[in-house]
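[PROTEIN RECORD]
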Amino acid sequence: MKISVLLLIVLLSLGTVNGQTYEYLGLLKLPDSSLITFRLDFKEVDGKINGYSYTDLNGEHETKSLIIGTYDDKENKLKFREIEIVYTKSDIIEQDFCNVYFTGDIRKLNGKSQIDGTFKSYYDDLTSCLNGELVLTAAQKIQKRTEKFQKKVRRMGRIPDSVKQKVNMGKMFNRYAKNALKGGEKLNILWKEEYLKLIIWDDGEIDGDQIDLTINGNKILDAYSPVAKKKEMELSLIDPINTISLKAVHLGVKPPNTAKIQLMKKNGEIIDLASNLQVGEEVTFVFYKEKPKLKK
């Protein structure tokens, strides 16, 4: 009996330390009435939150960033700010990125509520960027409330009808959509450590797809056919900028050429990706030890 009680106390303590994970999906509304998909994944422990934001979710400029913030359960206030880019599909060398600083209301942090508020954004040098509104709904409720949320968007003031008609909530809020990279796309990743574990496999029907994989121009996989069992490779990213390319060389029985990819750090952090290619197409992962500085 004493052992059972002790075990229960330990489990409850672990739950408090690790915190609960929350996931919210929604929209950033910019001053020009543009709407950009936005997602939050975070944990909350003793009023402090940390996790990730995704801007332009499932879009051609999707950007993942680290966030930190606070939750006040008495005032029902949530605050967070983006502190560092994890990856982006945008050209990291030519663009300066706005970091979101958000303050908003939330009835309860229980995975069922909605978050409403305003945000300001700043460049890395704290120069002001854009201000706007952010509306988020708990992801586990989004499928049931998609139509209701769509109506809410249509009621938003100062948004042209032409913009509202283009908002497809079903597509934008597909929380299960893979970050499927298409031929010619490049993913820019801030990766400060030398260690990289690259994991590749086929999580669908095994049909004979073949790929070439190169790192800094050196081929490490030649006409490899991904299978259900995960192939793990530990690589060293020695240079300040390292490039890994994945190229489709055979489509197999059922086109296109698809593969599931994970990029893992030593601490277990993972970036989940997928490729969707035709023969001869390739996707590129560019790893930066430091964020490139823009010439102004």
Observations:
- Helices lie at 2-18, 139-155, 161-164, 169-172.
- Confidence is low (pLDDT under 50) at residues 1-17.
- The chain has four helices and 18 strands.
- Residues 2-18 form the longest helix (17 residues).
